[in-house]
Structure formats: C-alpha cells, structure tokens
Design the sequence.
C-alpha cells in the first residue's frame, strides 16, 4: 500500500505533503478559508511512479486551503558577555499559517 505524496517549496523551505494533511508553514499573505495553489513542486511520488523536477515539475501543482493565521510558540533569544555585566533576553514569536492539503495533481 503506497501513498501519494509531493515535496513543495514555500517560504524557502521544503515540505513533504500528502492529501488531507494539515501543516504549519511560514506566513502567507492571504485571507482565511481561501484556496491556495503551490506550483513550485519538486517531486511527486504516486504508487510506483516517481517524478522529479529540474528544479520544478512543469505541470504539477498542489492545492491547499488556508485554515488560519497564528503565532508559533515563543523562543527565547539571550545575549551574554562574560565579565562585563551584559545580559539581554528577548522573546520572539514567528507568524505562521496553517494549511490543509486538498489535492495533488
């Protein structure tokens, strides 16, 4: 039993996606409940068939639905210099987008 999956490029990162999967990617500038089309598809695996792009597949696309925009968990950024009483602590929350993959073609 094989599953159909694709590797897409968005936000400078590569994601392995399957139909029906929900994942969080870097923030995309669109409204909620809107359809998205990712045309930068690097690879598609369908049963025994493997298609590899150079660097992208021409007619391949992955359709997704935008679920919501949110902020990721907070990370702590600390700076420290020894023997000089220098300490700085800041937090950062990365804006993210949650999407659901609907179709791989």
Sequence:
């Amino acid at each position: 039993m094989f599953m159909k999956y694709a590797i897409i490029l968005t936000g400078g990162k590569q994601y392995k996606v399957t139909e029906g999967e929900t994942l969080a990617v870097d923030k995309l500038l669109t409204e909620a409940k809107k359809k998205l089309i990712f045309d930068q598809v690097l690879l598609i695996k369908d049963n025994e068939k493997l298609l590899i792009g150079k660097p992208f597949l021409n007619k391949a696309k992955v359709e997704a639905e935008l679920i919501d925009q949110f902020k990721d968990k907070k990370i702590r950024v600390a700076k420290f210099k020894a023997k000089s009483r220098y300490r700085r602590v800041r937090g950062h929350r990365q804006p993210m987008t949650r999407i659901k993959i609907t179709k791989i073609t």
